Amino acid sequence: MWLESLLSRGELGLQACVDVGEHRSITGAQVVEIEDPGRWILPGCLALTTGVAFTNDVEAQTSFVRSLQRADASALGYALGNATDEPPPGLIVECRRVGMPLFTVPFEVSLRDVVTTILGETFGPMAVDRDQVIEMQDFLLASLDHREPQQELIRRLCELLGTPVAVVGTNGMVLTHAGDAAQLDLIAEVSRAFPGDVQRADRRFLVSEVQLPLGAPLKLVIALGSLTRAENLARSLSRFTCGLLKMIAMSRRLRTELERRMSARVCRALLDPSLPKGRKLRDEAACLGLTGEDAMTVLRISGLPAHHERGEEDKVEFSPSLTVHDFLDRLRIPYIAAPEGCIHFAIAQGKDIEKRIRELSPWRAFSRIAVGLSSPTSNFEALPHLATEAQLAHRHLDPRIGEGVSTAMFHGTNVADLLLAYVPSAVRHNLMDVLAPLDDKPDLIATLRAYLDNRRDVTATGAELYLHPNTVRYRLAKVETLIGRSLDETDLVVAIHVALRDRVATGLDGGSARRRVETRP
User: Does residue 161 sit within a domain?
Assistant: First the structure.
């Protein structure tokens, strides 16, 4: 029921004292004679009082109105001839200040008559056929069994009311809608208003807020249009629908959380070399979309958090707060992931995965995201080895890269990569010792790396480093003296090549030995 409709009832003789100039919906009525009525008033209800709780006490009058305003009461009715013959001035001033409509009830009219009129108008249409209302609620409840419960729920509510209905996010984006699509822009604008009845462009809308346990709230917007007595049914079904929307959100979040926990457990098991890759484990992977029918690639990812910060769960745009799951979801291929702190392992199934990652252009606007990729395989037993490959590829990504996404793929044809990936760390440690005498000689390490990259050509090495060939020969001779072996020995050259690649991957060079050609303007 609308406040304007109540005031227009001539038989009640109600007179407006404070008109706030907006439509106010009344969902019920209560008589309150206590100092703090907000504890007992429901949102949208009309408060009626004789004023005995605050007679001649301006401070008590102010507190009384503020309590009603905090409780979201729709209006205040003051009964004349009981405590005073006119509304107290303090009451009028505070009602104007907080925007609370105030009207008077004549002494000849009982407050019971006002309450009876409101309740009869508000609940009368539904009380006529209560079974029908229950049947409608069951009809809405059945949407939970649908594959897309939120979309089906809104469609059914639109079918029952015969008017456009929409669910809108806090940013004004229409998430789900049913009915006349021409009103979507208006609905998006209306959703930014406070919950309640909103008037826009000669149309009325009912805006209800859905508070979710986690994440930003949603708005349910119903276009009331020409609904008259069915408005009360719309309000009742709106409250019921808000409860179902909250249930759907909780169910979706719980299902997602369970799937991700299962994904992490299966991913860790598949990458663990000590665990057998039996049928049960493969069946669980298949339930998550990882069937092995297409090539699988192991990814090592850094630069993304494992979980959302509280309150950021429902952001839809690209943002630094998005998680590793949000990143992988945008590849649109089956995957499982095991988030661990700031560095994560994942197994993705599909073709051209590195290309898909590079095409995620919106991510380039944010901080460093590094992805190391293994070689592809269709063999589940090979996945632990591929994890080593992905880790090695990730280690070779330059830690000084700028903002954006950088990728590195393991190349099995490179002898150094194969040795670093598959030789035990204890054995690899002996290979690294060959460069120990050069740890404090960055110029010699830079010369040695350029010499091997240029197929041991002294002239080409000098050209790259902007050095005279004789200077290159002098430095190489000094390297041989410090190491104690000749660079003509093939096994020594292989060991140095592997050691140099490992130094880059582990960041031991620290950037001080970068070639001059890379630093020239």
Answer: yes
Same domain for 9 and 68, yes or no, is yes
d(CA 156, CA 165): 10
122 is a domain residue: yes
d(C-alpha 12, C-alpha 6), whole Å? 9
Confidence tier at 519 by pLDDT (50, 70, 90)? very low
Whether residues 405 and 432 share a domain: the answer is no
Helix axes of 383-395 and 415-422: crossing angle, nearest 10 degrees: 120
Distance CA 134, CA 458 (A): 90
pLDDT for res 310: 42
- Count the domains in the chain: 4
The domain that holds 40 is classified in CATH as 3.40.1390.20
378 with 484, same domain: the answer is no
Assess if residue 282 is contained within a domain: no
Residues 296 and 187 in one domain: no
Q: Confirm if 227 and 234 have CB atoms less than 8 A apart.
A: yes
For 32-90, the DSSP string reads: --SS-GGGTPPTTEEEEE-STTSTT-HHHHHHHHHHHHHTT-SEEEEETTSS-SS--HH
Q: Please state which of the ranges 34-43, 209-218, 241-250, 446-455 shows the lowest mean pLDDT.
A: 209-218
**What one-character DSSP code corresponds to residue 298?**
E
Answer whether 0.70 is exceeded by the pTM: no
Q: Are strands 369-373 and 343-349 parallel, antiparallel or unpaired?
A: unpaired
* CA angle, residues 321, 325, 330, in degrees to nearest 5: 95
Query: Do 115 and 7 share a structural domain?
Result: yes
Domain boundary among 365, 381, 410: 410
> CA 17 to CA 284: how far, in whole Å?
69
Token pair 């004292």 in the structure block, residue: 17
Whether residues 10 and 120 fall in one domain: yes
What is the structure's pLDDT at 421?
55
Burial of 194 (0-12, 13-18, 19+ CB in 10 A): exposed
- Angle at the Cα of 264 (from 213 to 398), degrees rounded to 5? 105
List the one residue out of 394, 338, 330 whose CA is nearest residue 356: 330
Domain hosting residue 208, numbered range: 136-250
pLDDT confidence of residue 520: 27
Q: What is the pLDDT of residue 179?
A: 83
Question: Which CATH number belongs to the domain containing residue 224 in this structure?
Answer: 3.30.450.30
Burial of 115 (0-12, 13-18, 19+ CB in 10 A): middle
